[in-house]
Each structure stands twice: as C-alpha cells, then as structure tokens.
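Hi Y.,

Following your request, here is the sequence exactly as I used it, all 118 residues.
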Amino acid sequence: MRAWEILENRATPSRPITVRHLHKLKKEEHRRLAADQERKALIPIMYGSTEWHRELLELERLELELAQMRAEIAATEAKTKSKTKEAISDMARSGIKAENQTEQTIVALARRGLGKGR
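Below is the corresponding structure, written out as tokens. Let me know if you'd prefer a different format.
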C-alpha cells in the first residue's frame, strides 16, 4: 500500500474526547457499579437459603434470654445480701440487748445481795 492510501483510509474520530465527555463516562460507570451492587445484594436473598438467618435470630433471642436471667439472678443475689445483712444486724442488736439485760440483772442481784448483808 502506498502512503497516501493509508492516510486516506485513516478515519478521524467522529466525536473528540472532551472533559465533559469523560465526566459523563465516569457518571455512567458509577451508575453501573451501583446497579451491580444492588443486584449482587438481591441475588442471595432471591436464590439463597435463609435458614442461617433464622438460626442467627434464634441465637440472638437465646442470648437475650440468658442476659435477662443473669440480670434476675444478680437482682436476687443483691436482695439476699441485703436481707442477710439486715438479719445479722438484728442478731447483733438482740445479742447486745441480751448482754445488757444480763449485765443489769447481775448488777441488780449484786446490789440486792449487798443490801441484804447490811
């Protein structure tokens, strides 16, 4: 082929590449990627098994029940500790009261004994 034949057959771009055209291409690519992501998110829902999702929900429910039981146990233990402290305090008070009464009785007996001897 001769040089002038090659130059004649060379086609010039019908549309020159501009910044505006590049921007449009970029926007189209973003739209296409967003549509692909939506489609990829829907495929497992449409064609996949949801059994694992049910099992996950059941596991979360059981964990919640366990946490509630632990909270109830903690509340019961706190109430028991409170009652135990009150009972110990009552016993200590009654012991001190009994000791005071015994001491007063001994003092009274000692006074009566001293008084009778005179």
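The mean pLDDT is 87.

Thanks again,
Q.
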